[in-house]
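=== Discrete structure encoding ===
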Amino acid sequence: MNRLNVRIAKFVEAVRIQRRIVWALLLRELATRYGRDNIGFLWIVGEPLLFCFGVIIMWSLIRAPYQNGIGIVPFTVTGYLPLTLLRHVLGQAIPCLRVNSNLLYHRQISVLKLFVCRSLLEILGITAAFFVVASAMWVLGLMEPPKAVGLVYLGWFLLAWIAFGLALIFGCLSQFSDIMERAMSLLTYAMIPMTGTFYMIAWLPYQYRAGVEKIPLVNCVEMIRRGFFGEFTPTYFNVGYTAAWALSLTFVGLLLTRLVRHRIEIE
């Protein structure tokens, strides 16, 4: 019994140490990226907020108030912010190892922790922006509250998980080839049709639906929209299938973090 207690105490202490390391890396990332002046780290929420409000205003001016029975404002919010999450997490993953390689000199800092901190920072900021935008639209009467909050959380969580898995993969691959870093902006634009930002599966011709249903990112957005719009809006998704994709991408990313560690030059 005493031996078991000692092991538990050691495990708890190890978790506490890892938590302090991740927290310190997060604070460093905030300070180096946003500085200490003006609004500082609040810009991580303010930036996606400004872009989202701009897109909402633009779409409201050039498109009809409703599209296939769905308001243009909630359709934009539930599509554009998931896309923003994916693009920001991937965009910050590419230079992650290049700009932070000197930190790997410390034994307790690993490649995985660097990716976790960068991705977590983006996920938290855009999640906060999503909450603020949705709440503001609800207060203004432009958007109704979610019909199934749990499904919104689930879709957002799986989307963030997939984005993190992709960040590990593309971030590590960028160390093997400079082409990946240069092509990332083009790749994120090419991935837009794979997110379901500008369409729903139910709007597609029947013969294309089965293929699009296999895209995990579309499944995430369909979950979020089902949570907001309710069961009377036709949506198509598979939670188990999407979670399997997230787990597989993360597993591949973790393998790459082990391989890429030996290719990084520590200054």
Q: What stands out?
A: The radius of gyration is 20 Å. The chain has a mean pLDDT of 81. Strands lie at 66-67, 70-71.
